[in-house]
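Appendix B, Record 12. Input sequence as logged:
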Amino acid sequence: MSLDKTYKLVPGTTIFDAEQSAKGYHLNQFCMSLMTAENREFYLADERAYLDAWPLREEQKQALLDRDLNAALREGGNIYFLAKWGATLGLSFQQMAGSMTGMTEQEYRKMMVSGGRSVAGNRIDHAVLEAAYADTAKPAGQATITGAVFTSHVPAIGVAMDQRKTDEPYWQPIFEGYDASRRWEKENLPDVIFLVYNDHATSFDLSLIPTFALGTGAAYNPADEGYGPRPVPGIEGDPDLAAHIAHSLITDDFDLTLVNEMTVDHGLTVPLSLMFGEVEKWPCKVIPFHVNVVQYPVPSGARCFKLGRALRKAIESYDKPLKIQVWGTGGMSHQLQGPRAGLINREWDNAFLDKLVEDPVGLSQTPHLEYVEEAGSEGIELVMWLIARGAMSDIDGSGEVEVKRRFYHVPASNTAVGHLILENNARAQTSAVKE
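Logged structural output:
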């Protein structure tokens, strides 16, 4: 079932949604560049040369050169961004608005003084609206969630891989624990991974702390976390699917921050390395989804679980036959600060894994205090696993899940390593062996 976008039918109106944002990203960023006097001077000195320095489509450049705001809107421009461009040219908002209506500035001003444009005659034609709702054509395909991967994202694991230490006695048991997982991943390769992780004071510092941030861009480079970027491939995103997910989740009342540009740290790259090994290019697209678990208040397990359920609804309403995996990363028990630094709780960790499989609804009610007391201050990362768990089909009884892999090991640097793979809509025949 397609998402409701009947707002596009309102005559004489362009709604700036996620699709328009992706289409006009560089156009609107160009407009923002005119927020400094120096750039305005450069632009006015040679408009074409300044435009050519930006990765704009020719249609976008021509719209600006022709002073055609309607064309700029069709090309993804947003009026608040385009206002920066208009101000650079010395245009008032009324001049700009008048130009889009076919009026002179004086005619437009006179209309506004008279009370503005009437809504009469400017509503959606009923026949058009009825036709839109009556369109029952089935899409050619539908996206499905094929499984969920849960794993720690320890930065030292990435370092061990990058420095060729995986065969050393300290690290060997950890990487052997992922051998079977890599085989499974290769045999069940998705088109897209929706990867839930937390940024570790890399792309988001204390000037901006989003609770949930969805990566809607086309690409993301590995971050420099103080030691230089990891020598791993950049991430290819899926802007179309991400825009669809954003529309669905926000409509379902989940407040998201949409991010077109950011770098991604070990929280995202280490899980990919664990599951795919050393590769020249990641074998599928990745949509990053950041959750704040650094500064309190952080979202509850219940909120994350509900988000996972809404995520499944979003993905299954996408009308392309894509295979999607949802990954939950972070944890397990660990504390990186204070006199309790080094805390590990094997019993609690394994009980968490048991409940994640058998009683995810009950697990989602675990209070923050228990995470901090039993799993350490950084063990709160485990709430992110509940997003992936909530996206599985057994939650609403429409399918079953099968445990394909379970692994636990202590230690990896300062933490315990936990790992689980659940395959969606499979009928369990054998039980996974705990290690």
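The two ends are 42 Å apart (CA to CA).
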